[in-house]
Amino acid sequence: MNNTIALIVTAIIISGAVAFTVLKPTQTAPLITQEPENPVVIREDGTQQITINVKSGYHPRSVTAKADIPTEVTFVTSNNFDCSNDILIPALQTRTQLEPTGTKTVALGTQEAGRVISGGCSMNMYNFNITFE
Ligand SMILES: [Cu+2]
Where is the EfeO-type cupredoxin-like domain (predicted)? Predict the structure, then answer.
């Protein structure tokens, strides 16, 4: 009887350890709440590509970009269900609805030095700005 209980307890401990090892999140997966490694990249075609991760706000919130070159901003979501998925950019008169998981790109055109393009969720709880210089 005692042996049976000991066996069951051992089995539970081992299966728990196995489940913990298998199910624990991999540490290499980037957290979407963090800023992308390179938020501003100039592609080979000469387009400036800004990446903003969206989860309970915008990461990064503040971006400095190069003036006088065509620019686009790509919003990246991963299981995000809050209002930051609904993005208004008043200066461009655009409204962008993001899927909970995915990417969406908005063209910002070519901006002069000193221009600041601001955007945010439709309630203006969360916001971001892109400064051209
Ligand atoms: Cu909001």
Answer: 15-115
Give this prediction's pTM: 0.76
Q: How far is the CA of 126 from the centre of ligand 1 (A)?
A: 6
State the CB neighbour count (10 A cutoff) for residue 9. Answer: 10
What's domain 40-132's architecture? Answer: Sandwich (2.60)
Distance 43 CA to ligand 1 centre (A): 32
Helices (H), the chain: 2-23
Tens digit of each residue's pLDDT (9 = 90 or more) over 8-34 = 556 655 565 555 555 555 555 556 668
CA 99 to ligand 1 center in whole angstroms: 15
| Residue 70, SS3 per DSSP | strand
DSSP 15: H
Domain limits of the chain?
40-132
